[in-house]
């Protein structure tokens, strides 16, 4: 019985690691307006469970026109739902000011069961965040 339990536990851990490897990588979104304004979002999810985020905006009539925002912390995935946490003591400083705690994003990819020719871009869609401008943002895997 102990052997069976150990085997089941081992298999469940392999499944979790395989899912994390699938999600890990670089994600980005760039938006340009007709007026020449630029918004860029870049997120790196490392296989070790850490993340780094950079947001760049160049709003021509903004004061100042160019702004950079950074965030970092840890991430986990369960059932295609990625959860983010930023430790106020170690992750937040003068440069890294974005607190991603309580942020959640859905991981979307083409299902292995889908045998059609349709193209489904791998992406992260933020569902909830205390950073108000991150809600509903979709970042595509690069």
Describe the structure.
This protein is of the alpha+beta class. The chain has a single domain, classed as Lipocalin (Beta Barrel). The chain contains one helix and nine strands. An eight-stranded antiparallel barrel has the order 1-2-3-4-5-7-8-9. Strand 4 and strand 5 form a beta hairpin. The model is unreliable at 4-17 (pLDDT under 50).
CATH architecture: Beta Barrel
How much beta, percentage-wise? 35-45%
| CATH fold label | Lipocalin
Report mean pLDDT, rounded to a whole number.
Answer: 89
In total, the number of strands is 9
The number of helical elements comes to 1
CATH class value: Mainly Beta
Estimate the global geometry from the Cα principal axes. flat
CATH superfamily: NlpE, N-terminal domain
| Major sheet summary line | 8 strands, antiparallel, barrel
Strand ordering within the main sheet: 1-2-3-4-5-7-8-9
- H/E topology pattern: HEEEEEEEEE
Structural class: alpha+beta
Would you identify the regions where 5 or more consecutive residues have pLDDT less than 50?
4-17
Q: Please give the domain count.
A: 1
Helix content: 10-25%
Determine Rg (CA atoms, Å): 18 Å
Separation of termini?
45 Å
């Amino acid at each position: 019985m102990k052997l069976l339990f150990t085997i089941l536990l081992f298999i469940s851990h392999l499944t979790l690691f395989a899912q994390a490897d699938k999600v890990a990588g670089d994600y980005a979104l760039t938006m340009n307006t007709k007026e020449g304004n630029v918004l860029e979002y870049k997120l790196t999810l490392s296989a070790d469970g850490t993340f780094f985020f950079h947001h760049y905006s160049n709003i021509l009539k903004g004061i100042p026109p160019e702004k950079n925002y950074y965030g970092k912390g840890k991430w986990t995935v369960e059932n295609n739902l990625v959860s983010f946490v930023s430790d106020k003591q170690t992750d937040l400083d003068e440069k890294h000011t974005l607190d991603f705690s309580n942020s959640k994003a859905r991981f979307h990819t083409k299902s292995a069961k889908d045998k059609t020719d349709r193209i489904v871009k791998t992406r992260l869609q933020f569902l909830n965040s205390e950073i108000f401008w991150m809600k509903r943002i979709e970042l595509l895997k690069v």
